[in-house]
Amino acid sequence: MATPTGTHSPDAPAGSAAGKAVAGTAVGTSAPAARVALVGVHGFGTHHLRNLDRLQAAGAVELVAVADPQPPAPGSVPESAKVFPGLDELLSATQGLDLVIVATPIQTHAPLALAALGTGADLYLEKPPVASLADFDRLCDAAAASGRSVQIGFQSLGSHALQAIENLVADGTLGTLQGISATGRWVRDRAYYKRSRWAGKRRINGVDVVDGVATNPLAHAVATALRIAGARTTAEVASVETELYRANDIESDDTSVIRIRTASGLPITCALTICASESVEPYITLQGSAGTAVFHYTEDRLTVTTASGTTEQTYGREDLTDNLLAHRSSGSPLISPLLDSGAFMLVLEAVRTAPLPALIGDAHIRWEGSGEAAHAVVIGIEAALDRAGREHATFSELGLPWATSAPCTFSVPAS
Fold this sequence. Notes:
The protein is of the alpha/beta class.
């Protein structure tokens, strides 16, 4: 597999916190406004519309076209931007694009990304990059052939806290790093799985979707843990084990443990559910011989505990579109380049190829709320997630009564 432009970013800068984005390096420069097209204007596409409005006001971009089979909400797209039902129509009618942003359902990422790269434009592709490792390899090869840059939408990787964490590990504040865990417990109701035809699906009409808890809603937990562990590319992961369950009437997993070992031997355990009693901000825990660090990545908040006490600090975050524009104009390293999603893609592939998620029995679930707002709660899941991360154990290894599966080992391809 060839290496695309700007694939490794160990020195990537960081800027402002999520929800509090400040102008990045690309804003306010004298470079000509980048001509941008946005594919997908609903769902997370609405975030991109707001962000592009900010960037256009600053003179950094010009949103020239959008594509979506559903028309955009009135007033959400600048009057100067043309609206198309799909990317093919947009590309046939639009010349000279500098950047294409793709924020569409997972199963569409591969064909849309390949089409965008074929235009000679740079690409911002929402997470997860694609729905299979084979598609990832094809996309990397296409990016290399085009010579264009690809940024993947793992927004948490723009946090300043990641550099602070790297410094903590390097200077020995935590002692010897012994393991990393990612813990996520969110609530998703029945309506969540009815919002689109691909929600909760592993495949649609033979096409991979892989909409599991670790690969979509809590994918940032996995990606952030991997980045902190120094596992970016496929070569930096030695093994992946999965143990997948579901409480909802869906195809994909909603409650799972993913256990990863890096090439250097560091264990990473991701214990995740969207069947909690209440949503709590997800977090990454670094377990050291002399202390711990807990990073709440949606808040950019880092808490460090050692023998000398506990400190807490909230950091800033750089917007990934700002970063991509700065990369185009001045060569700033990409924060979340395509090839650096390789480690995450091994996790996705392990989930994609694992046996169907095991159903958690009714005796171990309670339902809260009513109608479409009702959501499943796995009884005792909060304690189970905590133990799994702390002990680097799967649910079956912990002896939970509903955990009827065994860890499934994924064969990591040779580098």
